[in-house]
Design goal:
By secondary structure, the protein is α/β, with parallel strands linked by helices. The protein folds into 3 domains: 92 residues, Rossmann fold (3-Layer(aba) Sandwich), CATH 3.40.50; 104 residues, Rossmann fold; 43 residues, no CATH class. Helices cover 45% and strands 13% of the residues. The protein contains 9 helices and 7 strands; from the N terminus they run E-H-E-H-E-H-H-E-H-E-H-E-H-E-H-H. The strands form 2 sheets. Strands 5-4-6-7 form a 4-stranded parallel sheet, with helices on both faces. Strand 6, helix 7 and strand 7 form a beta-alpha-beta unit. Helix 1 packs across helix 8 and helix 4 crosses helix 5. The chain is elongated, with a radius of gyration of 25 Å.
Length: 286
């Protein structure tokens, strides 16, 4: 049976941004495991819209995973894509991830940044609290990946601090600033970042081939979780009934003298242990 990865980007009014997404889709198709198709979809601005892509894919297979080509948690990942999926698995956003951090570090270094420069990790921003957590974690990962100067987070919209404010604050401390463009492709937010007038501004992440590693990792994890859950549910459903232990005298077993637990196979504690064993075996089978 064919498996489908629906690669869902935000959508853009800017053709250069659409080109980058199509280039990334080409990378994903070139690196796809055997028997896996990559379908293009967008959550906003223009089609093919993810709801239509999901409906078409469902006519051919149930083995479908939506992977957001989005860098952080936000309303689209938590609400729009979940609704569009209609029960299908939706993978987490691409970030935070060490591979993304390394790409960002490479983009920063390509600007000619010096070791003591302040790097402003410039993200789009979201009203969802999880987005800020994700971006702050990306800042930590950039330090782990080799940025030696300060790394501060800032946002183009919705969250604080805004990118120009972070740039001005770093300058007030006498530091040169580098805006690390934490956006996938050129478009509205990349222009907002450029207008913040940092001393240096990195290019967007773009269709970097290393992104395929992150996308396929997200796909495999989301798909594997669903398959493991299905196997576990089947194992519990099909498990034979277990009779309650009986004493030689004909009475039911009470406390286990070896453990003093007082639990039997039919007691709540014994049933919980049995369920755990079944799920453990199911995961190994998955």
């Amino acid at each position: 049976m064919t498996a489908v990865l629906i690669a869902c980007a935000h959508g853009s009014r800017f053709e250069e941004g659409r080109v980058v997404v199509r280039e990334l889709l080409a990378v994903l198709r070139a690196t796809a495991p055997a028997g896996v198709e990559v379908h293009e979809a967008y959550v906003d601005v223009h089609g093919p819209f993810v709801t239509d892509v999901v409906a078409a894919a469902r006519e051919r297979t149930d083995d479908i995973v939506i992977v957001p080509l989005l860098l952080s948690t936000g309303y689209h990942t938590e609400v729009d894509l979940v609704e569009a999926a209609g029960g299908l698995p939706v993978a987490p956003a691409l970030g935070p991830h060490p591979v993304l951090a390394q790409i960002l570090v490479d983009r920063v270094r390509a600007t000619g940044a010096a070791e003591g420069d302040t790097v402003v990790l410039a993200a789009a921003g979201s009203t969802r609290p999880g987005a800020v957590v994700d971006v702050e974690r990306m800042a930590e990962l950039m330090t782990d990946a080799g940025i030696t100067g300060p790394v501060v987070t800032a946002y183009a919209a919705a969250s604080e601090p805004r990118i120009p404010d972070a740039v001005h604050a770093a300058r007030a401390e006498g530091r040169r600033t580098v805006a690390a463009s934490y956006v996938l492709a050129p478009g509205h937010f990349s222009r907002v970042i450029e207008k913040a007038e940092a001393d240096l501004t990195s290019a967007p992440i773009g269709a970097d081939p290393r992104l395929a590693t992150v996308v396929w990792e997200r796909w495999a994890a989301a798909r594997g979780a669903v398959r493991a859950s299905g196997v576990a549910e089947a194992a519990v459903r099909d498990a034979p009934e277990v009779a309650e232990p009986v004493r030689a005298s004909g009475g039911t077993a009470g406390a286990d003298p070896s453990t003093g637990s007082g639990s039997s196979a039919g007691s709540p504690r014994g049933l919980l242990a049995r369920m755990r064993n079944l799920f453990s075996r199911a995961r190994r089978r998955a």
